[in-house]
Each structure stands twice: as structure tokens, then as C-alpha cells.
């Protein structure tokens, strides 16, 4: 359940498009709830499209993006480092669709926020490289804005140093020349990136609150942390204030929300 209350009055706007890269379930439901709450979005202001479902439209080719205020690309349990021969048809479909969407939003400089898998896709689509060795388990490391991040119209409204939940196996090892590093961590260096003026990506998870992290802790034992260490993982995650990271959703929505005439 989301933990943020935004008292800003809502007025009808173009919806945001949520490009969903994960199967249905508790994590997907929590993801949507938090994005709506921290983005101050009504039910009609977030249009969801599953990239895993071949019967739903392909946003890279079948949707008119100008009908939306912006795009949010979710995280995913599917990873690019998985051996190609082990990838399911669903895994291959989501990679194909999200990669095409990433190329499109960068080419059009269309307002976008790619989260974790979304950031990695944006990097790969623009010539960046993913590497191992910088994985982060379920924790909340410090994220520090770079000088470019402090000057950016979106991230410049965030605290200069904040905590955020993480959980990923791959990481961006080499940024493409067209990307600007906005935030970094002491271990995983590429934490937030911008392309052009309007395309953003985060390696950390601004859409996870403390309550949401408990859902993931219960889901990912022996995936992102040794299951025997569950109590320690809960303790360290409970100790972190991640509202500065959640604010990324708020600032993205506030910056790009397009109001419709009454």
C-alpha cells in the first residue's frame, strides 16, 4: 500500500502510459498503486499496457504517444544476462517490445521514466553496455546527485543525497555518449541517467515504499538475498527513509503532466 498523501488538486490530464514488463501479481499491483499515489494520478490517468501479452498493442508501433503525458517503463524479473537458450517466448517478447519502445522514445525525446530494467533497456538501445559485478540485493543504498543532477529541472528538486531501494543483477557498465549521469552510488555507479531533455532512467526503484519492499522481500528469497537472512534484510530495509526516491515519481509526473482543456 502506498504511504504518500499528495494534497495537490487533481485536474483531468492526458494519461501516462505504463509499459508493464512483469507478470501480474502482488508486485505489479503494488507498483501501480505507488505510481498512482506518488504521481497524483487518478485511475484514468494511468493507462497500462502489458509488454508480455501479445494480444495487447505494441506501444512502439501501435500507440500514438502524443495521446499521453509520458511513458513509464517498469522493472522486470526478466534479465538481459540470462542465457539466450533459456529465455521463454514471453521473455523474448518483452525484450523485443521494450527495446523498440526505448529506441522510439529516445529518438522522439518523448517524456519517459525507465525503472531498473527500463533504464538498462534505454542504455542498451542507445549503445551502452550492461555488466555484471555491480548487482545490488534488497537494500537501500545512498544515492547522490551529480552536478548535472543538481542542475536538472527534474532531479534538481530532489535531496542531493537520498536513500532508495534496489534489487538488480545487471547494471550499466558503460554509458552511451548521448546520456548524462544524474545520480550515482558508491557501489553501483550508474543510478540515474537522462537522454536528451525528457528521457530519464533509474537503476534504483523510486516506485517502492517500505510496505512495498516487504512484498518483494517475501517474494525474492534466494533470488536477491539468501532466504536465511530474511530478518536482517527486513531490518535494514525498515531502517531506511526512501521518500526522497519516491519523489522521483512525483517530480516526473508534475513536470510532464499535460492538462486537457475543460
Automatic annotation (TrEMBL):
Pfam families: GATase. GO terms for cellular component: cytosol. It comes from the Bacteria. InterPro entries: ChyE-like (IPR044992), Class_I_gatase-like (IPR029062), GATASE (IPR017926). CDD domains: GATase1_1. Residues 52-210 form the Glutamine amidotransferase domain. This is Glutamine amidotransferase domain-containing protein. It comes from Winkia neuii BV029A5. The lineage of its organism: Bacteria, Bacillati, Actinomycetota, Actinomycetes, Actinomycetales.
Amino acid at each position: 500500500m502506498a504511504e504518500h498523501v499528495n494534497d495537490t488538486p487533481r485536474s483531468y490530464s492526458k494519461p501516462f502510459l505504463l509499459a508493464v514488463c512483469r507478470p501480474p501479481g502482488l508486485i505489479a499491483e503494488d507498483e501501480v498503486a505507488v505510481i498512482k499515489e506518488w504521481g497524483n494520478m487518478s485511475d484514468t490517468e494511468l493507462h497500462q499496457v502489458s509488454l508480455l501479452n501479445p494480444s495487447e498493442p505494441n506501444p512502439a508501433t501501435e500507440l500514438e504517444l502524443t495521446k499521453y503525458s509520458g511513458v513509464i517503463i517498469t522493472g522486470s524479473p526478466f534479465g538481459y544476462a540470462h542465457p539466450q537458450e533459456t529465455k521463454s517466448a514471453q521473455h523474448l517478447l518483452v525484450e523485443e517490445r521494450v527495446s523498440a519502445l526505448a529506441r522510439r522514445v529516445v529518438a522522439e525525446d518523448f517524456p519517459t521514466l525507465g525503472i531498473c530494467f527500463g533504464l538498462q533497456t534505454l542504455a542498451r538501445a542507445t549503445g551502452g553496455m550492461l555488466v555484471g559485478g555491480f548487482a545490488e540485493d534488497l537494500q537501500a543504498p545512498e544515492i547522490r546527485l551529480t552536478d548535472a543532477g543538481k542542475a536538472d529541472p527534474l532531479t534538481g528538486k530532489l535531496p542531493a543525497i537520498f536513500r532508495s531501494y534496489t534489487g538488480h543483477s545487471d547494471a550499466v557498465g558503460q554509458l552511451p555518449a548521448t546520456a548524462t549521469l544524474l545520480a550515482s552510488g558508491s557501489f553501483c555507479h550508474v543510478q540515474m541517467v537522462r537522454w536528451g531533455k525528457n528521457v530519464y532512467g533509474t537503476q534504483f526503484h523510486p516506485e517502492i515504499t517500505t510496505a512495498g519492499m516487504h512484498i518483494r522481500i517475501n517474494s525474492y528469497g534466494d533470488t536477491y538475498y539468501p532466504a536465511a537472512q530474511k530478518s536482517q534484510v527486513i531490518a535494514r530495509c525498515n531502517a531506511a527513509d526512501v521518500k526522497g526516491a519516491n519523489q522521483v515519481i512525483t517530480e516526473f509526473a508534475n513536470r510532464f503532466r499535460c492538462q486537457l482543456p475543460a
